[in-house]
Amino acid sequence: MKITLFWHRRDLRFQDNAGLAAALKSGHPVLPLFIYDQTILEKLAKQDARLTFIFDQVERLAKEAHEAGGGLLARYGKVPAVFKQLLKDYDVAAVYTNEDYEPYATERDTAIGELCEKSGVEFKAFKDQVIFAKNEVLTKNGKPSRVFGAYSKAWQAKVKPEDFAPHPSQRLFKKENLALPHPADARRPTLKELGFERHEQPTPPARLPDADVVKHYDKTRDFPADNRGTTHRSVHLRFGTISIRQLMHQAQELNVKLLNEMIWRDFFMMLLWHYPNTSYEAYDPKMRHLPYRNDPEQYRAWCEGRTGYPLVDAGMRQLNENGYMHNRARIAAAGFLVKQLFMDWTLGEHYFSEKLIDYDMSNNIGNWQWMAGTGVVAAPWFRVYSPDSQQKQYDPEYKYVKQWVPEFGTAKYPAPIVDHKFGRERAIDLIRKGRNA
Ligand SMILES: Cc1cc2nc3c(=O)[nH]c(=O)nc-3n(C[C@H](O)[C@H](O)[C@H](O)COP(=O)(O)OP(=O)(O)OC[C@H]3O[C@@H](n4cnc5c(N)ncnc54)[C@H](O)[C@@H]3O)c2cc1C
């Protein structure tokens, strides 16, 4: 019997899933598939909270598929090799999936598309993880926008109720539309077999945030001590355990400020797709050869939250412990590394990429390059935030700091590793020289 494989990646849900809904209408029974990609897994530490999260979601999907009268196939390996084998093991009519805009993913998908074509198998990818992708929102001159305000305005003018409409994947996900894995595939790899140990970090439930949180978001979002001040849904957006359409629809109805923050996500994904080189180098060629300092001792102090700047240290300790950091602290910590310490933004980007449970290449690259003044969109290179002013403004009673830096205010807390005024002037001076070199 011919089947359609539905390949899950950043969309670990059966509800409101664009590609899955299309697969279920493809005329062939659908077998959901997840591949533990060896190329990605090889780079991770043995205890990785993301991998534990993914593993649990795949197991949950397998259970849900079983309850619906189907099954889920999970394999480990290099993706092309896995597909070559799958096309031998099953009579595959089509492979459906959802688009992924990161540089590695676009190359991988092109290769798999070609492999399928050679074998006479249809390969289709659908837009699912953003509202608008690629070239859907352009400037009047037909170029990708480089100004967020203009992009957001055009995005909001373009969006229609149907862009938020759910795809009927859940309704169609029933026995008569599903295929079963071969008995030899009934067993899925365990975390241990994948070479990992369990490492759990706190994540919120995979459902919409409380309406109350969303309604007050514009007033509460900047205060890191307020645990209900933001939605905490970034991990679910990263792995597609909640539909972006549902979240953005809720934001559109209840809080336009939140909608605007989420539009940043579409914006950065669009930019990374257009400029994949920004994943490893400054967008602005003038900012590619700056004389960064990269002092290992100070870098370690930053990583461990021992800089003597409490908002930076609290953020880094929250990151190290929970794999999450409040946006205000991300701004303070990133700004401190790239300006006061004048270190290469790619060092900080890399550290965040190892630690954040919500690590998303486009958001991380976009925000780091913004902070460093090197990006497609960027803060002016001479802007240097003061960690102390941010502390006074966003955590005036040191509530967030006391939560994460228990020794703050005692003799054990370190003195600042760099003077703000000195660091600021040094950064401006070195960037000016580097830009003109
Ligand atoms: C240096 C730096 C690195 C960052 N790295 C990441 C990252 O790897 N992954 C990630 O998801 N976010 C990243 N962000 C953006 C932001 O800090 C997080 O999305 C947010 O803190 C997640 O918490 P939340 O879900 O409660 O956000 P909320 O404030 O509730 O926002 C809701 C959603 O909107 C989106 N969003 C909000 N702010 C931004 C923003 N500035 N840029 C892009 N999207 C945004 C996110 O998808 C977020 O989940 C980074 C920000 C900075 C300054």
TrEMBL record:
<protein>
    <submittedName>
        <fullName>Deoxyribodipyrimidine photo-lyase</fullName>
    </submittedName>
</protein>
<dbReference type="GO" id="GO:0071949">
    <property type="term" value="F:FAD binding"/>
</dbReference>
<dbReference type="GO" id="GO:0006950">
    <property type="term" value="P:response to stress"/>
</dbReference>
<keyword id="KW-0274">FAD</keyword>
<dbReference type="GO" id="GO:0003677">
    <property type="term" value="F:DNA binding"/>
</dbReference>
<feature type="binding site">
    <location>
        <position position="217"/>
    </location>
    <ligand>
        <name>FAD</name>
    </ligand>
</feature>
<dbReference type="GO" id="GO:0003904">
    <property type="term" value="F:deoxyribodipyrimidine photo-lyase activity"/>
</dbReference>
<dbReference type="Pfam" id="PF00875">
    <property type="entry name" value="DNA_photolyase"/>
</dbReference>
<dbReference type="InterPro" id="IPR018394">
    <property type="entry name" value="DNA_photolyase_1_CS_C"/>
</dbReference>
<keyword id="KW-0157">Chromophore</keyword>
<dbReference type="GO" id="GO:0006139">
    <property type="term" value="P:nucleobase-containing compound metabolic process"/>
</dbReference>
<dbReference type="InterPro" id="IPR005101">
    <property type="entry name" value="Cryptochr/Photolyase_FAD-bd"/>
</dbReference>
<dbReference type="InterPro" id="IPR036134">
    <property type="entry name" value="Crypto/Photolyase_FAD-like_sf"/>
</dbReference>
<feature type="domain" description="Photolyase/cryptochrome alpha/beta">
    <location>
        <begin position="2"/>
        <end position="131"/>
    </location>
</feature>
<keyword id="KW-0456">Lyase</keyword>
<feature type="binding site">
    <location>
        <begin position="358"/>
        <end position="360"/>
    </location>
    <ligand>
        <name>FAD</name>
    </ligand>
</feature>
<dbReference type="InterPro" id="IPR002081">
    <property type="entry name" value="Cryptochrome/DNA_photolyase_1"/>
</dbReference>
<dbReference type="InterPro" id="IPR006050">
    <property type="entry name" value="DNA_photolyase_N"/>
</dbReference>
<comment type="similarity">
    <text>Belongs to the DNA photolyase family.</text>
</comment>
<dbReference type="InterPro" id="IPR014729">
    <property type="entry name" value="Rossmann-like_a/b/a_fold"/>
</dbReference>
<feature type="binding site">
    <location>
        <begin position="261"/>
        <end position="268"/>
    </location>
    <ligand>
        <name>FAD</name>
    </ligand>
</feature>
<dbReference type="Pfam" id="PF03441">
    <property type="entry name" value="FAD_binding_7"/>
</dbReference>
<keyword id="KW-0285">Flavoprotein</keyword>
<feature type="binding site">
    <location>
        <begin position="230"/>
        <end position="234"/>
    </location>
    <ligand>
        <name>FAD</name>
    </ligand>
</feature>
<dbReference type="InterPro" id="IPR036155">
    <property type="entry name" value="Crypto/Photolyase_N_sf"/>
</dbReference>
